[in-house]
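Example (one chain per record):
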Amino acid sequence: MPAYSTRREFLRHLGVSAAALPFVLNLPSLAFASENQRKQRLVVLFSPNGVVPKNFWPEKEGADFELPESVTPLAPFKDRLLFLKGVCDKVRGDGDNHMRGMGCLLTGIELFPGNIQGGSHTPAGWASGLSIDQEIKNFLQAKPETRTRFGSLEFGVMVPDRADTWTRMVYAAGNKPVSPIDDPYQMFNKLYGNMKDQAAVRSILDTVQADLKKLGSNVTAADRQLLEEHATFVRSMERELAAAKDLDVGHAVPTLEPGIREENDNMPQLTKMQVDLLVQSFVADFNRIATLQLTNSVGQAKMRWIDVEEGHHELSHEPDNNEEAQAKLTKINKWYCEQLAYLCQKLADTPEPDGNGSLLDNTLVIWTNELGKGNSHTLDDIPFLLVGGGLDFKMGRSLQYKRASHNRLLLSLAHGFGHHLETFGNPEFCREGVLTGLV
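Predicted structure:
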């Protein structure tokens, strides 16, 4: 190999395309000693309307815990799980609990005053600070060795076009919500940048194959196989997208009152496509941070595919003594957990391009919610279930805290990336520092 100071310089010399550049930068045989370091990643997976606590939280603390019904799909990953019960969203101020639960979930700071009215509380606007995923993204993007093409990607499924405090959890700054992309066609186009519209899915396969030829003998046989696998993924995604080009993305309109429901029977297929794209974005090193927002706060998905006809939010308001509603809510959260398990299995089955374990070994996935429990609208015991090895937390445990501020968890995530902030969000809730017991 000729003498080049960086891989990027070498690949630019070869004329490797922008579509393939982030992926081939991962190849071990093109590694430069100064650039060879572990990649850490974070995924935040959101589902709405609280959980049924007795069917979500393990009874026992420590490593000797059993998985309740809602989380049984994660049994293969039990030694990689970390339950954090007793972590509470203490942010108050304007807005109802659904609004503050969503807008403060990743920001840890109050909502601005505004004119969005919800429930019986005061109206409110957007969050007044950036979200932790964007804080960590900015930290990584500021350093050449951790900078990626996008930094972060925001995926969605059934997220309304209409933007309000119930539908946005990611913030680039105060008053600047980031809209997730919930159309797989649009996300595919963003990742690979070579499609004009859904009706004409243009292949980037020729470009990737041409890049492989340009690399030629400069990479090992193992790396050529990785490139071929990447090309195979692109081909299969194009076929799936082309076959599903008439798929109705099905945007649901958020409302505090049940009754406005759009057809959303495509939600399982859309979720799978988005998870596949998310995992591949990590393989290609397009980003180190991702969020996957399944519907929205006050989400009214009707999960007919698991024999639930009622809207999710509608069911979440039923009292605890409505056993049928509790059973359906448990089924709903179990389905969401199955999507998490699918994501984790894909990450576990995908080797790191540099040979350092699997993607799951280097990724922390957080499954969370805007409420602890739907019918009480509590912001206590917010579901935080962590999976994976990205931040070197001690996994395989169930922890219980005494009303710990969730700002401390957000602070811990930053510290896990080497970003040693003293506070995040409202400093009032960071006085005790990072969440104890994680490492």
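Caption: The radius of gyration is 22 Å.
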